Amino acid sequence: MEVSISPESVAQVDVPVEGEPLTDQEVGEIREEVEPTEERVYEPQTKERTFAETLRMFEEGAFDENDVGVQIDAGWYDWFCKDSALARKTKTLLQRAKKISKSWRFDNEKTYIFFKNNCPVEGSMYDDFRICDIETEDVLYTVVPRREMKVYDSRRRAMRIEEVTAEVWGQDNGFAEPLVEGSWMDVVRWFNDKPSS
Questions:
Q1: What integer best gives the mean pLDDT of the chain?
Q2: What pLDDT was estimated at residue 24?
Q3: I need a labelling partner for 103 at 20 to 30 A (CA). Which of 25, 33, 55, 125 fits?
Q4: How far apart are CA 52 and CA 45, in angstroms?
Q5: 7-16, 111-120, 132-141, 166-175 — which is least confidently predicted?
């Protein structure tokens, strides 16, 4: 029995009878047909663009288009949501990032920002943005503007939001625990209020 792996393929692969293990050569032939020859990797273009420049471009409407390429250029690195949700999420995250962009804790001309949509094993999906050193590419801070904790309400037989928090994780403590956790305003204050000397 012969099977064509892809319509474009001219190579035919003999499929062994059920129970017969594939030889290394057969596995290699199948891989050549199935695996793409050119891997498509989305890499945000933010490493060459400072946090401050990203915000300027945002203000000029550079990331308004609901196109995956535009959103990757805005700074999306990883996501589990629909592609069509990225433009709205970009707007929300950059509006939040703007509130802390003049922080004394980092230099917005020596850092860049990227976005991640997280899908934890337990709990709801949530978005964060990461502030990175432009030279070393080290993540300095991971900022979660809004994270919902949901619990099952047996009376309503549905999930309900129990708590909404914002968090900042960072190099300051080796990402061991949140540097600040509370409301979004707590996060803004933590970034913008200099400690008393």
A1: 80
A2: 64
A3: 125
A4: 14
A5: 7-16
